[in-house]
Amino acid sequence: MAKIPTLKPRLATHAFAPRLQSSAADAGRVEARGTTAERGYGGWWQRESKAFREHYTGCVYCWLDGRSGPVELVDHLYPHGLRRDAQSRSQKALFRLKTYWLPSCHDCHRSFKAQIEAEGIEAIDALAIRLGLDPLADDELRRACLRALTRNK
Ligand SMILES: [Zn+2]
């Protein structure tokens, strides 16, 4: 079997790769994060997730499978379990942690990614490694993720 490529060295040449030109939206990112710290889904998310989706050219999970697919949503590699009516600090932190935001299509999110999540957090760690990312290390955030995974069952 061919060696599975990591994300970083091949970013520039693959279908899901970040677009090379930077935008005004990119420049505003850090600032936006600080000013809307108390919100979950809302203006911050609308703005940041849109900028993120526009930054990538394809679905990362399709890419893993050797296909090309559209960027239709931002997947949180580690599910956060955030709901409008119930937000803990760790859920919000996980929700906002862009390290684990990934460009995805609807089909992969419903099928491939849902299957990984059903297998549990170790399967998500393994997927992170396939993507060239360090698995989530923060204990508090891992507990938030585990709660989200349990609730999804
Ligand atoms: Zn896909």
What does this structure look like?
It contains ten helices and two strands, in the order αααααβαβαααα. It has a two-stranded antiparallel sheet. The chain has one domain. The model is unreliable at 4-13 and 22-39 (pLDDT under 50). It has helices at residues 7-10, 24-27, 29-35, 43-55, 60-64, 89-96, 106-110, 112-119, 121-130, 139-152, and strands spanning 73-76, 101-104. The longest helix is centred in the C-terminal third of the chain and has 14 residues, at 139-152. The protein has 153 residues and is mainly α. Helix 6 (89-96) crosses helix 10. Bound molecules: zinc ion. Residues 59, 61-62, 69, 104-105, 107-108 line the site of zinc ion (ZN).
Considering the chains and any ligands shown, give keywords for the structure.
globular, binds zinc ion, 153 residues, two-stranded antiparallel ribbon, mainly alpha, 2 strands
Write the topology of this structure.
Blueprint: H1 7-10, H2 24-27, H3 29-35, H4 43-55, H5 60-64, E1 73-76, H6 89-96, E2 101-104, H7 106-110, H8 112-119, H9 121-130, H10 139-152
Antiparallel strand pairs: 1-2
Helix pairs in contact: 6-10
The structure holds zinc ion.
Question: How much strand content do the residues show?
Answer: 5-15%
Backbone shape: globular
Which percent range fits the helix content?
A: 40-55%
Q: Which parts are unreliable, with pLDDT below 50 for 5 consecutive residues or more?
A: 4-13, 22-39
The largest sheet is: 2 strands, antiparallel
Estimated radius of gyration: 15 Å
Category from helices, strands and their pairing: mainly alpha
> What letter string, H or E per element, gives the SSE order?
HHHHHEHEHHHH
Number of strands: 2
The number of helical runs is: 10
Please indicate the count of domains. Answer: 1
Averaging pLDDT over every residue, what do you get? Answer: 81
